[in-house]
């Protein structure tokens, strides 16, 4: 009778170690070249975005200003030398005091600026989308000179923002502007556009509409050209009117593009600094300041308050993050994958 002996069992892995390499290590071994290509981008993002972001969050938790940033205060003596002493008001960690002061209204005009920012953003984005959609519908139809019209309508987007800002500021100049010249020719008294809060904000909104409509038009036009033409042909055969085809085919077909450009337009407009800063300059008496211009003035005008400016920056980021979260949740409820 033969005796069958079993093969010896493989040795068990040492305690504390996994039998297989980790998922990250397997990914590195298999796709090391992809990681190598991504690494420079990660380094650039870390230097240009992540470091300033975390630095700003840290500064918002201090009371750092131009006056207390130096460790020593030096003065000249009558003999011509310098006498240095430790700064008794050296900046320090204050926790959430800046946020409490800003949100309670003790420092700055956060709530007024927030209200103006919301009005500014809503007004601009509504007209951006509405006018952009109308122009996209027009340019999506066969017409003579369509290519020329597309180029001309994209030109405002190609012009630098500060050039357009100075041009529109001159148009609304009280004495020499084209707007008041047109009103005078109609027998209407000239308007001092920047003396009233709402007319001043109106000039900024008009300027930003001029700048932002081309982007919406190009994006929506691209979305329209992806909608199958067979849908329009079938609807026309069924007797659908132009409005019915637009409402039941064009708008649903544009929904993915529309949701994206509205989100991008909201974020860009919310942070649109040069138009308010160059066109209205916050006139009258800070009545048209928005959050980003308020943060700029805190950081670079008067005694520079770096901690306060950082606090505004963190609050702006928080508002946009919360808006993006709710916006994404609303899209998911509507069945959009985003």
From TrEMBL:
<keyword id="KW-0812">Transmembrane</keyword>
<keyword id="KW-0813">Transport</keyword>
<feature type="transmembrane region" description="Helical">
    <location>
        <begin position="110"/>
        <end position="139"/>
    </location>
</feature>
<dbReference type="Pfam" id="PF00528">
    <property type="entry name" value="BPD_transp_1"/>
</dbReference>
<feature type="transmembrane region" description="Helical">
    <location>
        <begin position="32"/>
        <end position="54"/>
    </location>
</feature>
<protein>
    <submittedName>
        <fullName>ABC transporter permease</fullName>
    </submittedName>
</protein>
<feature type="transmembrane region" description="Helical">
    <location>
        <begin position="257"/>
        <end position="279"/>
    </location>
</feature>
<feature type="transmembrane region" description="Helical">
    <location>
        <begin position="151"/>
        <end position="171"/>
    </location>
</feature>
<feature type="domain" description="ABC transmembrane type-1">
    <location>
        <begin position="114"/>
        <end position="327"/>
    </location>
</feature>
<keyword id="KW-0472">Membrane</keyword>
<dbReference type="InterPro" id="IPR000515">
    <property type="entry name" value="MetI-like"/>
</dbReference>
<dbReference type="InterPro" id="IPR035906">
    <property type="entry name" value="MetI-like_sf"/>
</dbReference>
<keyword id="KW-1133">Transmembrane helix</keyword>
<feature type="transmembrane region" description="Helical">
    <location>
        <begin position="306"/>
        <end position="327"/>
    </location>
</feature>
<feature type="region of interest" description="Disordered">
    <location>
        <begin position="1"/>
        <end position="22"/>
    </location>
</feature>
<dbReference type="InterPro" id="IPR051393">
    <property type="entry name" value="ABC_transporter_permease"/>
</dbReference>
<feature type="transmembrane region" description="Helical">
    <location>
        <begin position="201"/>
        <end position="221"/>
    </location>
</feature>
<comment type="similarity">
    <text>Belongs to the binding-protein-dependent transport system permease family.</text>
</comment>
<keyword id="KW-1003">Cell membrane</keyword>
């Amino acid at each position: 009778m033969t005796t069958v002996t079993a093969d010896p069992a493989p040795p068990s892995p040492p305690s504390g170690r996994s039998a297989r390499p980790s998922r990250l290590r397997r990914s590195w071994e298999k796709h090391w070249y992809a990681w190598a290509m991504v690494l420079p981008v990660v380094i650039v993002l870390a230097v240009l975005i992540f470091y300033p972001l975390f630095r700003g969050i840290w500064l918002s938790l201090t009371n750092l200003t131009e006056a207390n940033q130096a460790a020593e205060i030096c003065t000249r003596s009558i003999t011509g030398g310098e006498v240095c002493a430790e700064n008794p008001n050296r900046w320090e960690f204050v926790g959430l005091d800046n946020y409490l002061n800003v949100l309670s209204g003790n420092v700055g005009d956060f709530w007024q600026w927030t209200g103006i920012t919301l009005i500014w953003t809503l007004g601009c984005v509504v007209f951006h989308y509405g006018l952009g959609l109308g122009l996209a519908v027009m340019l999506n139809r066969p017409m003579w000179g369509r290519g020329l019209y597309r180029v001309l309508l994209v030109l405002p987007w190609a012009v630098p923002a500060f050039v357009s800002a100075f041009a529109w500021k001159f148009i609304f100049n009280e004495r020499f502007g084209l707007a008041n010249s047109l009103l005078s020719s109609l027998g209407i008294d000239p308007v001092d556009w920047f003396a009233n809060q709402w007319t001043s904000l109106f000039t900024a909104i008009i300027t930003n509409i001029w700048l932002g409509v081309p982007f919406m038009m190009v994006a929506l036009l691209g979305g329209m050209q992806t909608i199958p033409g067979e849908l329009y042909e079938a609807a026309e055969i069924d007797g659908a009117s132009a409005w019915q085809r637009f409402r039941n085919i064009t708008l649903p077909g544009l929904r993915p593009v529309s949701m994206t450009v509205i989100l991008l337009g909201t974020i860009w407009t919310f942070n649109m600094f040069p138009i308010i800063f160059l066109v209205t300059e916050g006139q009258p008496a800070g009545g048209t300041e928005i959050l980003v211009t308020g943060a700029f003035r805190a950081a670079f005008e008067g005694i520079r308050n770096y901690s306060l400016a950082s606090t505004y920056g963190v609050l702006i980021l928080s508002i946009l993050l919360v808006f993006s979260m709710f916006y994404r949740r609303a899209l998911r409820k509507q069945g959009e994958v985003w």
